[in-house]
Amino acid sequence: MSQRMAIYMQDKIDLREELELALYMEERGFSEIWQGDNRLARDCVVAMSAFLTHTRRISVASGVLPIWTRNPAVIAASFSTMWELGGKVNGRGRVMLGLGAWWEPIAGRVGVDLHSPLVAMRENIEAIRALLTMEEITYEGEFVHLDQVSLDVVWGDRSARDIPIYLGATGPMMLELAGEICDGVCLNYGVSVDYIRSAIGLVERGAKRADKNINEIDLPELIVVSLSDTDPAAALHEGKKLAAYYFATEPHIMKASGVSEEIAEKAKQLMGWPATEEDYERASTVIPDEIVHDIMAVGTAEDCRRKVREYCDAGVTCPILYPLMGNIREVIDAFADGF
């Protein structure tokens, strides 16, 4: 397979089944697994470590790890350990570090104050990148304070860790920051093709500040794939439920999707947190069909392949497919031979 393809793992199915599917992804030529960590469900470091020990070639990424949940030195140490665990394929490590800024209401409910996210993100990325060189660093910022710190590997491989850093970005300033200081940006799901074109333009603006070309920045995107050849209407319904959840609980996705505040507010009134299946069902009734088709790959396998092609034509370098209905094997088969 010449086109990079990835699957987004969350917590939809049993983790042991996901490990077997990871082997199947390798067999079918997929390039990457991206493990979610934005909810209090599965810890990405644990899941990534399991994928790395169960596979031999596929790259494994965090999609994405909130910077507020770990100290940057601990993040660097965790990913350095996974870099050792995964070994190298064609001379390169298999681990990719995706970082994000988290969201409300979850952050506030666990006591995290999400202030100055751009400053916090820049400091964390700069510090982690420096630590992955395996050199001793001192860093004094508003959020990050490191005094003569290095990754304390005494008996193992002390060579620099070739771990690319991605920023999960949705808003304009975070997209520009990603282009300026990261190896790539993990573009969000639940957004239109037009949004992706605009987002890539903002990444390019940030890249230019660092004298980089947009072609030097990797541009994978999370893409919701709600696929059913036997019941496309059910696939559309699942897409509506997810759209309602994000419009109600994650305002940055709501804004990026282009949905009206009126629809978002209706969904919010019907959606609790943590959301129950009943909340999803109630809130889905206010989501129009056309919105779902605009921001997700929904319907038959050919419908979904066609939509993913649109995102790639807009500049996405690697579709990270999120099988919304839990039918990961079916989605792998639908895309393994190209699209």
Structure in a nutshell:
Helices cover 46% and strands 17% of the residues.
For the secondary structure, the number of strands is 14
- In sequence order, what are the helices and strands, one letter per element? EHEHEEHEEEHHEEEHEHEHHHHHEHEH
Strand content: 15-25%
> What top-tier CATH class of the largest domain fits best?
Alpha Beta
Give me the CATH architecture of the largest domain, please. Alpha-Beta Barrel
Q: Could you say how many structural domains there are in total?
A: 2
The separation of the N and C termini measures 11 Å
The shape, in one word, is: globular
Task: Walk me through this protein's architecture.
The protein is globular and about 55 Å long. It folds into two domains: 258 residues, Luciferase-like domain (TIM Barrel, Alpha-Beta Barrel), CATH 3.20.20; 68 residues, no CATH class. The mean pLDDT is 95. It has 339 residues and is α/β, with parallel strands linked by helices. The termini are close together. It is built from 14 helices and 14 strands. The strands form three sheets. Strands 1, 2, 3, 4, 7, 10, 11, 12, 13 and 14 form a ten-stranded parallel beta sheet that branches.
Short descriptors:
10-stranded parallel β-sheet, globular, 14 helices, two-stranded antiparallel sheet, 339 residues, 2 domains, TIM Barrel, 14 strands
Give the SSE layout.
Blueprint: E1 6-9, H1 15-27, E2 32-35, H2 44-54, E3 59-62, E4 65-66, H3 72-86, E5 88-89, E6 92-93, E7 95-100, H4 106-109, H5 117-131, E8 137-140, E9 145-149, E10 165-169, H6 172-181, E11 184-187, H7 193-209, E12 220-227, H8 232-249, H9 251-257, H10 261-270, H11 277-284, H12 289-295, E13 297-299, H13 301-313, E14 318-323, H14 328-335
Parallel strand pairs: 1-2, 1-14, 2-3, 3-7, 4-7, 7-10, 10-11, 12-13, 12-14
Antiparallel strand pairs: 5-6, 8-9
